[in-house]
Amino acid sequence: MSNQDSKFINNFSLVLGILVAIAIILLALARSVAARTQGVEIFDDPTYIATVESSTAPFAKEAIAGQDNSAMAIKAPAGAGPSVALAVPKTGKDLFDSVCTSCHGAGIAGAPKAGDKSAWAARIAEGKPTLYQHALNGFQGKSGVMPAKGGRTDLPDDLVKQGVDYMVSLAQ
Predict the structure, then answer these.
(1) How far is Cα 6 from Cα 118, in angstroms, rounded to an integer?
(2) pLDDT (tens digit, 0 to 9) for every residue of the chain, 172 residues total?
(3) Is the pTM value of this prediction over 0.85?
(4) Which residues are CB-neighbours of 128 under 8 A, at least 6 positions away?
(5) What are the helix (H) ranges across the chain?
(6) What angle do CA 136, 138, 141 make, to 5 degrees?
């Protein structure tokens, strides 16, 4: 390597080092200026404040016995159309066809299949009052889960009992 090449590499390295040092100084200067101005502006920004409040707001409210809990009523969002309630079946068979068959038709979540005599025999042996209680209030068994009223809490108790009677009749 010639003396001239060596001198060029040294000068080039010196210029690159100076440029890197200037870039670091400019970055530090920009961060210090931003720290004094940006922080104040962010904390006064209404959008930022609303975001923080929504993120830190409690996600649930607890009803307290003996107090007015009407503020906790579930309301439809603004602009939502009228709500459509599901039709209430008229008979136990209609209830089975519209609600119960979703789990008891295919045996989902450990539900005994409708008409399966061996699966229903032990349950029928416990008696209808127990079957009614499990259907009305829900039940957590060893092999599955029965939600209260099959997940349709709007159904009257008598109709749920008719649905239980219908499923028992399928297994006998």
Answers:
(1) 94
(2) 788 889 999 999 999 999 999 999 999 999 888 877 766 666 677 888 888 888 888 777 777 777 787 777 777 777 666 666 778 888 988 988 888 888 888 888 788 888 888 888 888 898 999 989 988 898 887 777 888 888 888 889 999 999 999 998 988 7
(3) no
(4) 164, 165, 168
(5) 3-44, 46-56, 92-95, 101-104, 117-125, 128-137, 157-171
(6) 135
